[in-house]
Specification:
Layout lengths: L8 H13 L3 H14 L4 H8 L3 H21 L11 H11 L7 H12 L5 H10 L17 H17 L5 E8 L30 E7 L5 E6 L4 H14 L6 E5 L8 H7 L4 E5 L10 H12 L8 H13 L5 H7 L10
Parallel strand pairs: 1-4, 4-5
Antiparallel strand pairs: 1-2, 2-3
Pfam family, one: DDE_3
Organism: Imhoffiella purpurea
GO molecular function: nucleic acid binding
Length: 343
């Protein structure tokens, strides 16, 4: 009787996700074998496709069914090193989600001190990849944050705005950015063993840009001023009213900058179609235009040198004028999946 190696859709999805994470070719082959068998392929066909022995393919599947991904992939580390069991791996995963180590060697020391299990730095690097970890920088957030309930209340308020606004009404996210006339160094592909240098400017000139973006249309309304203050804010609000002449109400979500609360701004709003809606204090994570400004900096500033300030200003304006070319990326980036800090 032929063995039934078929797996559920959930199991196959788990295996595909693991396949995207692994870095070792041997691990990838093992997962490939189990996926192909799980899809209903024959053992011989899978073995021929992967240039493996049929018995090896069967053993991979048996290990997966017996102990899941842990047992299947732990085969990569058989040798002089001991192995963490499933419960220890779960405990390590939980620990790493609250503690950041700068090197794999530091994680290996923690594992040895906690469980008496020794890993080499390279072995620990492979294990970290298998657990779904990547070597990257953490996100910097303000020291003060509103409560989770306060943040959720804003999201509910935003959803209410969307559901109850008139057809021609619009919602925009507004904030200022101050890019400096100097390159921002970012990661890139550089020949191994070589150093790549980028020129920099000695001055500290910068642009002061205040803008508001419509998530539905990706329309950006912005202005560059010598300084961002109450007067320049009113000028931007007037531009918004001109940009949306048919809107009875223009809901502008913004932070708590002092110039938004100035008396002259409040006076202007008394007869304006603009409705300012401040975010909870210390919550840039809820202002989606922050993502847009970060994308703008990557496109215009990262690893780019502009000899003259006028060239830098022109490059910024050209980016804003050509947003259509970035529409697919921006629609993904500006999706309304608000990050709730501390959730």
């Amino acid at each position: 009787m032929m063995n039934d190696y078929r797996l559920s859709d959930k199991e196959l999805a788990e295996l595909r996700a693991a396949h995207r994470r692994v870095r070792e070719i041997r691990e990838a082959y093992r997962i490939n074998a189990v996926i192909l068998l799980g899809q209903g392929r024959g053992v011989k066909d899978v073995a021929d496709a992967l240039l493996l022995d049929p018995d090896t393919v069967r053993s991979y599947f048996k290990r997966y069914k017996k102990g899941g991904l842990d047992d299947l992939l732990c085969m990569s580390y058989v040798g002089s090193e001991a192995l963490l069991n499933s419960s220890q791996l779960r405990a390590l995963d939980a620990h790493l989600q609250s503690t950041i180590y700068q090197t794999a060697a530091e994680v290996a020391r923690y594992v040895e001190q906690t469980w008496g299990v020794r890993y080499t730095p390279s072995g620990m690097t492979a294990l970290l990849h298998r657990l779904g970890y990547a070597y990257k920088k953490p996100t910097l957030l303000p020291g003060k944050n509103p409560s989770v309930e306060t943040q959720k209340a804003f999201v509910s308020k935003y959803e209410n705005f969307k559901e109850n606004k008139a057809e021609e009404d619009v919602i925009v996210f507004m904030d200022a950015v101050h890019p400096q006339h100097n390159p921002v160094l970012g990661c890139g592909w550089i020949k191994r063993g070589k150093r790549q240098a980028i020129q920099s400017n000695t001055g500290r000139q910068r642009l002061n840009i205040n803008g508001a973006i419509n998530l539905e249309t990706l329309q950006l309304t912005y202005r560059m001023d010598d300084t961002i203050d109450a007067i320049s804010t009113i000028a931007l609000l007037k531009q918004l009213e001109s940009a949306y002449p048919d809107a009875e109400r223009i809901i502008v979500i913004c932070d708590n900058a002092r110039y938004y609360k100035a008396r002259v701004v409040a006076k202007y709003l008394e007869t304006s179609r603009v409705q300012l809606e401040p975010l909870p204090a210390y919550s840039p994570n809820l202002n989606l235009i922050e993502r847009f400004w970060k994308f703008f900096k990557k496109q215009v500033l990262y690893n780019r040198y502009y000899e003259r300030f006028a060239e830098f200003r022109t490059a910024c304006k050209e980016f804003f004028a050509e947003l259509d070319r970035y529409a697919p990326q921006l629609r993904t980036l500006l999706a309304e999946n608000f990050q709730i800090v501390g959730h």
